[in-house]
Amino acid sequence: MRGLHIFADFYHCPKGKYMVSAKALRQLCIRASEGAGLTVLGDHFYQFNGFDATQAGGATGALVLAESHLAVHTWPERDGATLDIYVCNVTGDNSDKAEALYAELVRVIRPGDIMVERVWRGKDVPVADEAPTIALP
Amino acid sequence: MRGLHIFADFYHCPKGKYMVSAKALRQLCIRASEGAGLTVLGDHFYQFNGFDATQAGGATGALVLAESHLAVHTWPERDGATLDIYVCNVTGDNSDKAEALYAELVRVIRPGDIMVERVWRGKDVPVADEAPTIALP
């Protein structure tokens, strides 16, 4: 369960396909994750409708990774996006892969302003010897 | 973009279907999200194989919500799980719904120990008047 969670809020992003197209955002996320050496197990992305004829809708989605997940949401009306990358370390330290994925998304989306925090999740709690058991149906 | 992000690490969870069945975990997440008044747009869940014949594999997945996302990963070999709930406030303050979802997942999964943090995301950056434009292909 131990692993790095990068959560970032992007501001003043250039307008463009990654802010308004779920298809383009999905392709970027998959390409960037695989490029960083992470394993994509599946995903779901959704295209929001625009508020009116002059304003495109945002894009939102999540990739389920073998190492945990990537979630991205865009707000084109605010030139903003939020980003979550969480990688657990079951198969080794995946922090470098998370940072590579983050760097690639910053490089492509090109936010003018970023608020980012890194949290190290999963303290070292010993495995319980006798966890209660719930019967499977 | 402003909204509450609850991230929690669950320890000493009782063994049972929510720790080892992606199908059961998915159903729980959808039911609990809808019960909290959140709107599920789609999801992807994945069932990990066990390490050997005596140890079931974990479950992992994400729900894409109209309000942002829910992501859950389980580690049955450690009786642990991680949980992320992020709700933006475009349509109003969804914090109570996020807390209701969190409370329901705690009630059902019944972790013996929890490390939880709440982060208020999205500072009030004004909309840029002239964000650079990238041409759509």
How is the secondary structure organized here?
Two copies of one chain form a homodimer.
Chain A: E1 3-11, H1 17-20, H2 22-35, E2 40-47, E3 59-65, E4 68-75, E5 80-88, H3 95-109, E6 113-121
Antiparallel strand pairs in A: 1-5, 1-6, 2-3, 3-4, 4-5
Helix pairs in contact in A: 2-3
- Record the strand order, biggest sheet of chain A: 2-3-4-5-1-6
Give the biggest sheet of chain A.
Answer: 6 strands, antiparallel
Give the N-terminus to C-terminus distance of chain A in angstroms. 27 Å
Largest interface: A-B, 56 and 56 residues
Number of strands of chain A: 6
> What is the CATH topology assignment of chain A?
S-adenosylmethionine decarboxylase
Q: Which overall shape of chain A is indicated by the principal axes computed on the Cα atoms? A: globular
For the record, what CATH class of chain A applies? Alpha Beta
Helix content of chain A: 10-25%
For the record, the CATH architecture of chain A stands as 4-Layer Sandwich
Quick check: average pLDDT of chain A? 90
Output the CATH homologous superfamily of chain A.
S-adenosylmethionine decarboxylase
Number of domains of chain A: 1
| CA radius of gyration of chain A | 17 Å
Order of helices and strands of chain A: EHHEEEEHE
How would you describe the oligomerization state of the chains in this entry? Answer: homodimer
Question: Which class of secondary structure composition applies to the elements of chain A?
Answer: alpha+beta
